[in-house]
Amino acid sequence: MNRRFEMSQPEAAPQACDPADANTSWEWIRTVLKPLGLTVIVAEWPLAEGRCPGPLLAKELGQKLLAADCGDFDAIKVGKLTRFFFQVGVDRLAESLQLVERELQARDLLVSAKIGHADAEAGLWRVYWPKAGPHTL
Q: For residue 109, which of 23, 104, 125, 134 is within the disulfide window of CB 3.0 to 4.6 Å?
């Protein structure tokens, strides 16, 4: 008896997985985060902006959310936009959004930022900032 595994074809190389991608997956948001009482906040900036924040700011904002017992930093996605993702409690969503807004305002980063959150029920992103009426991201 041959005790080796036989592979007729070599396996394909695994695809790289970016953890930030889970934050934009409605399946993940609805089936994993929502049952845990969590949702996602995203803060984004155009890559071309001169004052585009870096990972240290994302971690600092996450620490402030954690200290306020609201949530924590999850991931960064860099492309045409730089996006910070935070996972926060649905019951503390308003407080979390206000905290992110205040912190970005204090660093003069709010002007070029867009802040929103995942609405799992509607399956869309709600814009919190800029406050110019009902929008979706």
A: 104
* CA-wise closest residue to 82 among 112, 60, 108: 112
Answer yes or no: are the C-beta atoms of 124 and 50 closer than 8 Å.
Answer: no
Question: Helix-strand-coil percent breakdown of the chain, rounded to 5?
Answer: 35, 30, 35
Whole-model pTM over 0.90:
no
Instruction: Please state, as a whole number, how many other Cβ atoms lie within 10 Å of the Cβ of residue 62.
Output: 18
Residue 100 — very low, low, confident or very high, per pLDDT cuts 50/70/90?
A: very high
Angle of helix 55-67 relative to helix 93-106, nearest 10 degrees? 140
